[in-house]
Design a protein that fits this description.
Transmembrane segments: 125-145, 188-205, 256-277, 289-310, 331-348, 368-387, 399-421, 441-465, 508-534, 554-574
Protein name: Integral membrane protein
InterPro entries: AB_hydrolase_fold (IPR029058)
Region (Disordered): 1-22, 216-240, 765-787
Biased composition (Polar residues): 778-787
Helix content: 55-70%
Distance between the termini: 26 Å
Largest sheet: 7 strands, mixed
Shape: globular
Number of strands: 7
Length: 787
């Protein structure tokens, strides 16, 4: 009711041209976290117009047949709500997506490359390096599962009498039992079912989510060119390319390669101990030859996997419906067959063989850490080369956002792997120290977590101090925005504090840059410490100054505890999300931000909801304008504005002439323009402004997410309206007898400016009053654009 009164008041304050005869439509797209169609349409009675239980378009029940009734009596366009929240926060299986967090983060790094000109090979090299970093994450996760199942459980605990006695479920594997499974090779072969099942689960999630979310074909468009360069833009900018939202072929190819890589990792973990035993002097020659043959086959198939990952990436400039069926089917099957052969080979009787010490975990995890570090450094050099071709002052970290995020993805993978290994080792060993425990490198990596957290704490204190100083300075500005209101110091402080806190979003590049650089340096130090041969940092510090020794012991103990706590929190959060819809929705918010982009670097990342949402919006707008000939306002809030922009880029020019874009609380420039400059930089958003018939953006100074589009040149004022007042009233007034809330990022429709701007956009879409282009508008329409 209050919103309707405000809209009516807005209409009284700002007269606009009368509505034309044809039907007008407002297509609303919500933001992160999701909502209900009843809330979006401000009506408890809604009906589904088109769509399914996953994503659909709704209307008020009274507007279901609005096109069949005269529209001249309507003061507002017919509202429709596109609800897509079930794409990211639906049933309980979404809790399994927590396992995929490092994969999601490395996939983001692919899309964070800087804008480039005339550097097609460098662009391809950037994508290749990110795909290889994603492959190392798959190997790292499966290697962590092998460490837990094969090394800690089957090799160490089951092979030690004291440990096996404490865990009766391992009794049949103990050599003391004398059973068939007590041989070390057979124990390893049986334990290999755990990491193999994890690999199969990742394959299943990737295949199932692609079928449910990303198999929607976009509207057919003509390819830009038969073989365009990677940095060329399609019609309407990079996101307007015909095949941008349809990566079926690449996802299937990468899924096959990563599945094979996971199975090969398990096969190597099973075959290596047996082959090492067979190479001893006096060992059986036949088994030794078989071991070398299996290792040669493992290396050859691993080379094929790397070659598949290195092949050319996405085909965005055309709608590629083909699949590499032979590759997709045969590569995982070949790896599975090789795993079965290694299991048979390891299980062959070797009477003198006994398990002792640890498996080759230090070599495995050390090699993975070294490979990830080298890939990140090469990625940083490549990103710097691209940035120099077209420097963008808005780009986060001067084009180093992608390498920084890739570093964080590797760090997340390391923390998850170390946390699982540490907790399982503590659980199995108790306090007796009966087994050697996890690899040395994992202990060193855990020990660098406390210094990293201390550095972040210092950085957070500095940012908090800056926000406090900004809040004090902002008080005078707040009083200037409400000159005719009596002074209320507490109200002024609250508004100023909200504005200052909203600016902390702009410090995200600093936090990410410091965190990633510190992580890279500390990770290198941990790898160097593990290579020295010292079991723990505390032992390495023996003989040093007492302060150094105490710091090393504290870091080691606290790091082990923090890694374990992180693992426990991950399991707890996942269990709660599986049962609790509200917790599942919270996880969905995280995926709303992280899974907008297609899976281009890692096939096991959570699914891209935009590959379903963007075709939905495009098809709806194209079919409705074709059927009615009416005008349409595409109205997007927060993340919905990003979906709206992506859908507008996919429209044909004939449809764009009937569509206006209204964005509010939009992160298009503030977040996406900074972190994804190649796709949302000034050039791309300028192309969107030229392609869409008219565009208006609303923002508030109290909004921590949304901000101005701020296009360079004369076209900027035509898009951004001056910041909206928030709160709408400083104190109690006749129009606001109760204190007006500080809205921040929410409820932009409550501001009278929303209805005013929507009405003006519809008026500009009138066929008898074509909207002027940006160049002429800056000269002849200054009054309207500065409203």
């Amino acid at each position: 009711m209050e919103r309707a009164q405000q809209r009516a008041a807005a209409g009284a304050e700002a007269p606009v041209p009368p509505e034309p005869a044809e039907t007008a439509l407002e297509l609303l797209v919500h933001g992160v976290g999701g909502t209900t169609p009843e809330r979006m349409l401000d009506d408890p009675r809604t009906v589904r117009i088109t769509g399914d239980d996953t994503a659909a378009v709704f209307r008020r029940a009274a507007d279901a047949d609005a096109e069949d009734r005269p529209s001249g009596q309507r003061a507002e366009p017919v509202p429709e709500a596109y609800v897509w929240c079930n794409l990211t926060s639906g049933n309980g299986t979404r809790a399994l997506w927590l396992l995929l967090l490092p994969f999601m983060v490395v996939n983001l790094a692919h899309w964070m490359r800087p804008t480039a000109h005339a550097r097609p090979r460098t662009v391809r090299l950037y994508g290749l390096l990110v795909r290889l970093a994603g492959l190392t994450l798959t190997v790292l996760l499966v290697a962590a599962a092998c460490e837990v199942a094969l090394d800690l459980a089957a090799w160490q605990c089951a092979g030690t009498r004291a440990c096996a006695a404490r865990h009766s479920w391992l009794g049949f594997l103990s050599p003391a039992a004398g059973g068939w499974w007590s041989a070390p090779g057979r124990r390893l072969a049986l334990a290999a079912l755990v990491p193999a099942a994890l690999t199969a689960l990742l394959w299943y999630l990737s295949h199932r989510t692609w079928s449910a979310y990303e198999s929607q074909q976009p509207m057919s468009q003509q390819p830009v060119s038969p073989d365009p360069e990677p940095e060329e833009s399609g019609a309407g900018g990079p996101l307007g390319r015909p095949g941008f939202w349809y990566g079926r072929r690449l996802v299937a190819r990468l899924r096959a390669a990563h599945t094979a890589a996971g199975l090969l990792t398990v096969a190597a973990a099973v075959a290596t101990p047996a082959a090492a035993f067979d190479r001893r002097p006096g060992g059986p020659a036949a088994l030794d030859v078989l071991g070398w043959s299996l290792h040669a086959a493992l290396v050859a198939l691993a080379a094929v996997v790397v070659a598949v990952v290195c092949r050319r990436g996405r085909s965005e400039h055309r709608l590629d419906r083909r699949l590499d069926r032979h590759l997709v089917r045969r590569l995982p099957l070949g790896a599975l067959l090789l795993l079965l052969l290694t299991a048979v080979y390891a299980g062959w009787p070797r009477p003198p063989w006994q398990s002792a010490g640890r498996l080759a975990g230090d070599t495995t995890f050390g090699g993975i850490a070294l490979a990830q570090g080298l890939l990140v450094v090469l990625l940083a050099v490549t990103a710097h080369t691209l940035y120099r071709t077209a420097p963008d002052p808005r780009a986060a970290l001067r084009g180093q956002g992608g390498p920084a995020v890739a570093t964080l993805a590797c760090a997340l993978g390391g923390v998850m792997s170390g946390g699982v290994a540490q907790r399982v080792a503590d659980w199995m060993d108790g306090t007796g120290g009966s087994i050697p425990g996890p690899p040395v490198l994992l202990t060193w990596q855990a020990s660098v977590i406390p210094p990293l957290l201390l550095l972040l704490l210092v950085l957070g204190g500095r940012l908090a101090g800056r926000a406090w100083r900004l809040a004090r300075a902002e008080r005078a500005t707040v009083r200037g925005d409400y000159p005719d209101e009596p002074e209320d110091p507490e109200r002024t402080r609250r508004i100023a504090r909200t504005r200052a806190m909203a600016t902390l979003t702009d410090d995200a590049p600093l936090v990410v840059g410091v965190t990633s650089l510190a992580t890279l340096l500390l990770g290198a130090a941990a790898l160097a410490g593990a290579l020295t041969g010292h079991r723990t940092p505390a032992r390495a510090a023996r003989g040093a100054h007492p302060l150094v020794q105490g710091a090393a012991e504290t870091a080691q103990a606290l790091g082990s505890w923090l890694v374990g706590l992180g693992f426990v929190l991950l399991v707890t959060w996942g269990r709660r999300a599986y049962k609790d819809a509200s917790a599942r929705r919270t996880i969905g918010i995280l995926w709303d931000v992280g899974t907008f982009w297609p899976r281009a670097a890692h096939p096991f990342a959570p699914p891209c909801y935009a590959e379903r949402a963007v075709p939905d919006l495009t098809w709806r707008m194209a079919t409705w304008t074709r059927a009615t000939g009416g005008r349409l306002v595409l109205s997007g809030h927060s993340q919905g504005s990003v979906l709206a922009a992506a859908a507008a880029w996919q429209l044909t020019p004939a449809v764009r002439r009937r569509v206006a874009l209204l964005t509010y609380g939009s992160p298009l420039t503030r977040l996406y323009g900074r972190w994804f400059p190649a796709h949302f930089g000034p050039a791309a958003l300028g192309a969107l402004h030229r392609d869409v018939d008219c565009w208006r953006n609303l923002h508030r100074l109290t909004d921590p997410i949304g901000g101005p589009v701020a296009l360079p040149g004369d076209s900027g004022p035509a898009v951004d309206r001056a910041p909206l007042k928030d709160p709408l009233a400083y104190g109690r007034t006749a129009r606001h007898p109760l204190p007006a809330p500080i809205l921040g990022h929410s409820d932009y429709q409550a501001d009278p400016a929303f209805a005013e701007e929507r009405a003006r956009l519809l008026a500009r879409l009138h066929p008898d009053l074509p909207a002027p282009r940006p160049g002429r508008q800056a000269q002849g329409s200054a009054g309207r654009s500065s409203a």
